Amino acid sequence: MIPQDGGIISPLDVNYFYFTPEWHIRxxxxxxxxxxxxxxxxxxxxxxxxxxxAGPALLEETLVDLGIQxxxxxxxxxxxxxxxxxxxxRYEFDMWQPWPQLSTKFDVIIFPESASSLSIFPFQxxxxxxxxxxxxxxxxxxxxxxxxxxxxxxxxxxxxEISQALSQTGIQFAYNPSGLVIITRIQ
Length: 187
Ligand SMILES: C[S@@+](CC[C@H](N)C(=O)[O-])C[C@H]1O[C@@H](n2cnc3c(N)ncnc32)[C@H](O)[C@@H]1O
Description:
Elements lengths: L1 E2 L4 E3 L7 E2 L1 H5 L9 H9 L5 E4 L5 H8 L7 E5 L12 E3 L13 E6 L14 H13 L2 E9 L8 H10 L3 E6 L3 E6 L2
Helix pairs in contact: 4-5
The structure holds S-adenosylmethionine.
């Protein structure tokens, strides 16, 4: 792997960039995972995190180093070849297609620089694809759980359209132009 500026890593054998744990937390409350998310998982061993598009799971392995139990973290990717065997709960699927049946509800679901793959779709399909992704992820979210994505690029109007459609189903969709998406149920 070739480290690049600011926490981005260029693997030699795959087409994706990978990211250091520091990259994902660099924006504090506006980062992929916050101190509150960490504390919820740390203080409650029954709490579960799902990482979709985990890749080499550098962030997820750091969470384990910091005291989260490996069985609390479930990992998913289109291709799990590069995902370490630290994590025995692992699922291979395409996030943009119907998800397989997952028998767990998750307190936190993260998409670490992976929902940026929205950009492979034609512009006119992106709102629908993001709504579909949010609905599928929310179906395996606990009632007061939180979904967080970083690296998502939406242009003016798209976030509002997604937010309005999801609010009809009781889901709150918040987008920060830094690329952060936060999805929760409307309480
Ligand atoms: C930019 S890499 C980020 C990897 C890792 N999360 C990180 O932060 O370093 C994007 C990851 O998302 C995965 N991915 C891309 N499209 C996907 C899809 N449609 N469904 C599931 N995973 C996908 C890739 O295989 C890759 O591991």
